[in-house]
Structures are given as C-alpha cells and as structure tokens.
Write a structure and sequence with these properties.
This protein is 44% helix and 12% strand. The protein has 28 helices and 20 strands.
C-alpha cells in the first residue's frame, strides 16, 4: 500500500466509515445555526470560510501539551498561565481579530461570536457541538481535529480521527452540560475587553470619515496593540489569578509557585534563542508580580504589575533596536476577503492621515490621467536613454521591469497562491527584486522613482548601512533581523532598501536566513510578507548563492550616466520627478484586484524561450491595455518577458575566464569533461579575495559532473559539451571526439572480435 492509499483523515458517521466530507458538510451551516466547541487551534481563515453563517458560536481554546512539568502547580504556572501570557504578549488575539472579515469582527463585537481561553487550567479536550434552535437537530463531532485547514489536509502526513453523531440527544446533552458546568467557569475572553474597546473606537472613527466604508474593517497599529497587550497581561495576573484564588479554583499558595518559578529552571539549549527569551521574560514577570518579602506571598498592586509588564515587553530590546524598528513607516494592507469591486474596494487598505483607522486604497483613473501616468514613465526612461552611456532599448527594459514589479508587489502573495500547482512552484514568483548596479548608474534614483509612482513620496527608502550604527556589535546579523521585521509587519507594500552590501548575498547565514527561509515560509503558508526591492553595487563582481538566486529576481543596471552630462542629467530627472504621482498605481490596483477576483484569469504563463514562469504576465497585459486606451504606441523598452540577468552575468563571467585562461581548463577525454583548478582564482593571480566563491556560485549545477559534488573542492569538473554551448564558444574537442569514436568502432568491428570481460564479485552476485 502506497502513502497515497492511506486514509489520513478517518471519518466515522454514526458508526459507519464515510467517504471524505467537505469541511462545509461537516460544519453544516444550512442544517445547524449554533456551535459550541473546545479545540486546540483556530484560524481567522477557517472562521471566515466556514463559520461565518452560524448565528451563535462559543469556542474554548485548549492548551498545548507540555511534558516537562512535574506538579499540578507547574501546570498552572508553566503551562496555562505562561501560554495565556505569551498569547497576549505576541498579540495573537489582535492578529486573529484583524484577520477576520468586517462581518465577523462585528459578530465578535456584538457577542455573537465568543472565543475563550483558560488561564489557570490545562485543557486537552476536543469536541464540537452543533445544534439548531428551531428544528432541534444536533450533531456531536469528536476527534483530534482543530478549527484550521491543516487538520483537513490529507497531504500533511498527519492522521486525524473524526467521529460524527447526529441527533444523539444523550451524548449531546452530556457534553453540553460538561462544557457549561465544568469548562466555562474557568474561561476568560480571548478577544478581551481592551481589544474590543479599541476596535469599537476605530469603527466609530471610521464611520465619521467620508472616505470610510459602510462595513468598517479594523486594523490596529502597533502602538495600540502594544497597549492592549500590556493591559491584557496585567489583567491576567492581577485579576484572573486573584479571582480564581478567591473562588478556590486554584490553591492560594499558587503565588509561591509563581514566585519560585525560575528556581532550578532547566534550559533547552536547542530551542531558538528568541523563544527562550520570551519564556524567560514571562517567567520573570510572574515572579516579580508577587511581593518578595511578604511572609505569605501575595500579588502586588495592579499599578506595579502594569509597570513591570511594560518594562518586560521592552526588556529584550536595546534603544538601538527600538530605533531600527521605527525606520519602516509605509503600510499597505492586502485584505482579499474585504474586496468589493462594485463599491470600488480593491481590498487594499492604508492608515488614514491621523493613523486612527484604515481606509480603502485604489481609485479608477480617467483616460487622461492614465495617459499622463504613461508619459511620466516615458519621461523617466527618456532620461536614462539620453544620459546613460551605451543605452539601448534592451537595457531600458530593466528599468521598466522594476516598475512593473513594484506595481505588482502588493499582490505577489496572492498571485503566488493562484499560480502554484505545487508548493515549490512558489519560488518562481520571487519576493525579492534586486537591482545590481554600478555607482553612478542611477539605481538609487530609480528606487525613489518607484516610491513616487506607487506611494507619491520618495521618503520611504531605508539605507541598508545605516539601519544600525557602524560600531554596533553583531551589526550584520542585527541588520538582517531588522529587515525581516520590516517585511513581517503585515504590510504588503515593498520594503525599499538602498545599497545592500554584497556580503548579504554571498554569505549563507544572511541570505539563506532571509531570502530562502522567507520564501519557504511563503510557499508553505501563503500570507502577507512584504516584498523587498533593493539595490546593491554590481562592480563587475556581484554574485549570489545559488539558493538565493533561485528565489530572487535580479536586474543588472551596469551602465553609468555620462560624467560630462551629469549636471544636465540631474536637472532633467529632478524636473521629471516633480511630475510623478501614484494616480496610475491607484488605478492599477483596481484592475489587478478585478483579475484576482476572476476565476478565469490565467496565472501560469510560461516564456517560450526560457521556459520560466512569467509572474508579471498579467501586469504586462494591463499595461498594454493602458497604452491602447491612451492611444499611445507601446514603447520599444517595454519588456515582454522575464529578464534573467543573474544567469547572463554568470555566463559572461565564465566565458571571459575561459577565453583569457584557456590553458587552465584541462580536457579529460574519457569523461568528456573539463577540469579547472579553482584555487588559482586568488589575489596573487590578480583576482579578488572572494573570487573563488563568486565563480563557484556562478557555475550552474547542471553543468557540473556529478552535480553539486562537481563544484566542490580544489578542482571543478565541468561537462565539456554543455559548457561550450552555455558560454557560446566553439567546442575545440568536438571534432576530436568524433575521430576517436570512429576509430573505436572500426577497431572493434573489423580488427578485433569482442573479448568476454571477466566479471567482478558484485557483477557475479547481482548479475
């Protein structure tokens, strides 16, 4: 039996094995209108897709298992309370609430949808009670499933048991009573009063705004959610613990356990450093919340605990780190579930001018405005055409591609989900655009132009080298951590990063951590992670690790602005930039949203020459329509295909190496391969210190004998025929191979009969 034949999701319906049911059939809102659940996990996506039509929902979230605790008091302090505090500190309630549709947010605010947690008791129960208040039909669902899509993914290699009992009144009543009498009394709201108050205030503000929408959506900024987290954590300790002590639900001496929680604490060194820091912070918070000198330990006052909570939340950050986090200030939220094209809502939201609530982003432009937008882009390209040395239209396509990518950037995560048949396909839609450029090529100016065309400002750029001061310890690692933080703030507007230093791409611990790990996260769990558009110095020696290059769109801008015309060029581009705005981009997001809503839109368009997925195909289509509407001829610098500049620069590097050092490539006739001593690429021979890795990274694995092993070590072994075809040079050994082959055939068929070869041990044993 193969893995695909195994039944991973086992559903038993009233005692009988059942074919796979859809989630909507299991949680049937056409038959039932109320649900009570005790579950391990719940996601906003699951609520939005499957639970929205219930008129009343109560959900209790259980506690993750912990096998390290030793006593009943440990369960309270190290499992239940720690989990509740971590959830609040990580803003999990706010994140889930924000991800709900506006209708479901309203259901929570109106108390029709309740989610609760148990801050002092570990719950491992799983059951789901569905009922209909009019027909009195009931359904009980038992099993290991959670309220998330992964529980129903039969490709996850995870077994789930689902037992369904329809109209079993005794079982339903038993579990319903258990929930009401035993579980509900120890619960507290997951969506707390502090969160709901902030949400309602934002909705009230939105309703007053003429730019707001009828169904106001709540998106809270970091400052607000920080205050909510601090208040929630304070309430957990100062209110919930004391309340359950007073009601005898937990022992009074639990405060002593809280105070002693850090005693003899064993650390798991294999855990991620951040996770350890989080736990330490929460443990310390519990300990310091109890008076240290009282004969009988008791909780400190609410005011003192609140101050300790605030201090704990920032204790792991230096002033430099807090300053670095504030450098990113541009937010554009993509909310596909709120998309409503009839009401001109693209699904994108931006904070209003005062930052109190989100408002829709996007507006259909007039033909005249579209024409002006295209002319502005043309004026930009004419500047490069006029002042860049050796400019041609093929080179101009790189600038245009960068603009097309920046327009598409907010929707890339949606396009990735629609274009991917398999998770790994997501790597064909890179979340990173890198402009490799020489000094004086206008790369930073292009980044500012992109900012103006999409955000109507040129002040959103972040300078890679100044995120942290030069003297900062571990500056490189901290800089990459800061960029990761910028990308994961929930915004889909690209992070615009100027002057990324070459080490980021060449050293595994940096590029792999950010580029590879981020892309893996995106392809396995599609969600909003802001794309990164960055510039880096090309200096004729730029290279990337192969894994990084696979997940990056690289455009090479290696021609400089004419030094003699630099003053005139600066004046020209300054005047052009005064005319730029984001009117065309606002129209574009409306049209792209329409394509995303259309199930017939094709997202898997492959280039005929390269075979690569053109993830910008629909963007090109929209821009061609723009030119048609504006009655403007499509310019010659318009790119009709993905540019593969990293592959081309790699090819050029090895072609030049072969042509200048042909004698160092030794032909190996029996394997039809070339051996090259890569250690010769050293400073003594005129190369840079990192040349060995640059050339090693630039050599495609498919050209190497024995794959990746052919790239390792002192000698690189390359397939000769494929190598010469790749660099576009004549294979000088091709004719020799033909002569050797003809001679071998003649000798074998005419002069010598074939001799039977002796068989070795393995040949005799296995035939």
């Amino acid at each position: 039996m193969t893995d695909s034949d195994l039944k991973k999701i086992h559903i038993v319906f009233n005692g009988q094995d059942t074919p796979p049911l859809k989630i909507s059939q299991l949680f049937d809102t056409t038959k039932f209108n109320r649900m009570t659940a005790v579950t391990g996990n719940i996601t906003a996506d699951f609520i939005n897709q499957y639970l929205s039509k219930f008129i009343k929902v109560e959900i209790a979230l259980s506690t993750p298992e912990n096998h390290d605790v030793k006593t009943g008091d440990d369960v309270i302090t190290k499992v239940a309370l720690t989990n509740a505090l971590l959830s609040a500190a990580n803003k999990k309630p706010a994140k889930i609430f924000e991800a709900l549709t506006s209708d479901n947010q309203a259901n929570v605010l109106n108390n029709l949808f309740q989610v609760s947690i148990a801050p002092t008791q570990a719950i491992h129960s799983r059951f789901y009670l569905l009922s209909n208040s009019e027909t009195h039909d009931t359904r009980v669902i038992l099993g290991s499933l959670n309220l998330d899509n992964s529980s129903f993914d039969d490709q996850r290699n995870q077994y789930e048991e689902i037992l369904v009992f329809d109209n079993d009144i005794r079982l339903f009543q038993n579990l319903d009573n258990h929930y009401k009498n035993d579980i509900k009394p120890i619960l507290r709201p997951f969506f707390t009063e502090n969160l709901l108050k902030a949400a309602q205030e934002q909705i009230d503000e939105s309703m007053k705004d003429p730019k707001g929408t009828k169904n106001a959506v709540v998106i809270l900024d970091n400052e607000v959610t920080d205050q909510i987290a601090a208040a929630d954590m304070t309430d957990l300790i100062s209110h919930d613990i004391q309340k359950q002590i007073d009601e005898n639900k937990i022992p009074a001496l639990i405060t002593k356990t809280m105070r002693d929680i850090t005693t003899n604490r064993s650390q798991d060194k294999e855990e991620a450093e951040r996770q350890i820091q989080q736990h330490d912070t929460i443990y310390t918070l519990q300990k310091t919340a109890v008076s240290p000198r009282a004969a009988k330990p008791k909780l400190k006052s609410r005011e003192k605990i609140f101050k300790q909570v605030q201090d704990a939340l920032i204790s792991g950050m230096t002033p430099q780190q807090r300053s670095a986090e504030k450098k990113y200030t541009t937010f554009l939220y993509d909310r596909p579930m709120e998309r409503n094209l009839v009401n001109n809502n693209s699904g994108l939201y931006v904070p209003n001018d005062t930052g109190t609530h989100p408002i829709p982003f996007g507006k259909v432009a007039t033909i005249s405005q579209i024409r002006d937008g295209l002319k502005s882009i043309d004026a930009v390209l004419k500047g490069y055409q006029q002042y860049v040395v050796d400019y041609n239209d093929d080179y101009g396509k790189r600038f245009y591609e960068a603009i097309l990518y920046s327009f598409t950037a907010p929707f890339l995560w949606e396009i990735r989900a629609k274009a991917s048949l398999n998770p790994e396909d997501g790597n064909d839609i890179p979340n990173f655009l890198i402009l490799g450029a020489t000094a004086g090529s206008g790369k930073s100016t292009l980044l500012r132009i992109i900012n103006q065309l999409t955000w109507n400002t040129d002040r959103s750029l972040i300078d890679f080298g100044t995120i942290y001061p030069t003297e900062t310890p571990q500056k490189k690692a901290k800089t990459v951590d800061a960029i990761e933080h910028y990308m994961k703030l929930g915004s889909s507007y690209p992070v615009l990063m100027d002057e990324i230093e070459p080490y980021f791409f060449q050293q595994d611990q940096y590029s792999r951590h950010l580029v590879v790990d981020t892309m893996n996260e995106l392809v396995n769990n599609p969600h909003t992670i802001a794309p990164l558009i960055g510039t880096t110095n090309y200096d004729s020696g730029f290279t990337m690790l192969r894994e990084t290059a696979r997940r990056t769109y690289y455009l090479q801008i290696d021609k400089v602005i004419d030094e003699q015309q630099k003053g005139e060029a600066n004046k020209y581009i300054y005047n052009v930039r005064q005319t730029l705005n984001n009117t065309l981009f606002k129209d574009f997001v409306m049209r792209m949203a329409s394509l995303l809503e259309d199930d017939d839109t094709p997202w898997r368009s492959f280039d005929e020459k390269t075979g690569k997925l053109d993830f910008l195909a629909n963007t090109r289509k929209l821009f061609r329509e723009y030119y048609k509407m504006a009655d403007i001829e499509v310019p010659p610098y318009f790119a009709d295909e993905i540019c593969d500049d990293f592959k081309e620069s790699s090819r050029n590097r090895w072609a030049k190496l072969y042509l200048t050092q042909e004698e160092d490539f030794k032909y190996r006739q029996q394997d039809r391969s070339l051996l090259f001593d890569i250690s010769k690429l050293n400073t003594f021979n005129g190369f840079t210190a990192d040349s060995i890795e640059k050339y090693r990274n630039a050599l495609p694995i498919e050209l190497c004998v024995d794959g990746i092993n052919g790239k390792r070590g002192k000698f690189v072994e390359i397939k000769a025929d494929e190598f010469f075809k790749w660099i576009g040079e004549r294979n000088p050994y091709g004719q020799l191979e033909a002569l050797v082959s003809d001679e071998a055939v003649a000798n074998t068929s005419i002069e010598q009969p074939m001799k039977e070869q002796k068989k070795g041990f393995w040949a005799r044993l296995f035939g």
